[in-house]
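Human
Can I borrow your eye for a moment on a structure tokenisation matter? Give me a protein, with the fold worked out from its sequence. Write it directly below this note and I will take it from there.

Assistant
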Amino acid sequence: MKKVYGLPQSLKRADTHYCPGCGHGIVHRLVTQAIDEFNLRNKTIGVAPVGCAVIAYDYWGIDVSEAAHGRALAVATGIKRCLPGHFVFSYQGDGDLASIGLAETIHTANRGENITCIFINNACYGMTGGQMAPTTLLGQVTATTPAGRNPKNLEGWPLMVSEMLSGLKGVSFAARSSVSCPQKVRQTYKYIKEAFNRQIKKEGFSLVEILSPCPTIWQKNPVEAAKWVEKEMAEVFPLGVIKE
């Protein structure tokens, strides 16, 4: 009988520290599955962020470097330039990539560094207590916007990272998907593979933004959180290929 499903070799068997309903575990599997499919396991280096995925290396059976908060793409740049024959990717949340690390994000993309970035957008700071993030939706209640995010309070608007980066010539591919349902998970995997392929073909910077539920901070159960991604987040952050 042909085996049609199994644990990726690049994914370790480990108890998860993620909350029930969190999307990180799904994305971890998709990333390692793509690594296996492209036969990259022995020459891949991932860069883990500060955030909920700070110990992603406990789940990935590949070489992984830790980075200071917001500096994942700076670290990834150094690794890629020292080891240009290796496949290098960063894995970052919205606070890490779009707030404290925004300068690193923009300049890495603008230079066209041949790196792949997996960007998890859950519209909040998950690890540090649920503060407003650059991607927090208008009206969304967080620890620092108890009345809901309001531009009139100089809290700004949700930052459209993928659209912003797509205008840079160094970016070869940018897409946004989610992990809110099986169909979206399959589409996310296709985008991840395309982003990986752009690096393999040495075409420059590639990014996959993934809308991911955060039930604990949003104070919703996993089903409600998945529906919120589809009904609320996807309205603000449209899904699809943004730059091809």
In short: The longest strand covers residues 171-178. Strands lie at 44-48, 63-66, 87-93, 116-121, 171-178, 205-211, 240-243. The two ends are 39 Å apart (CA to CA).
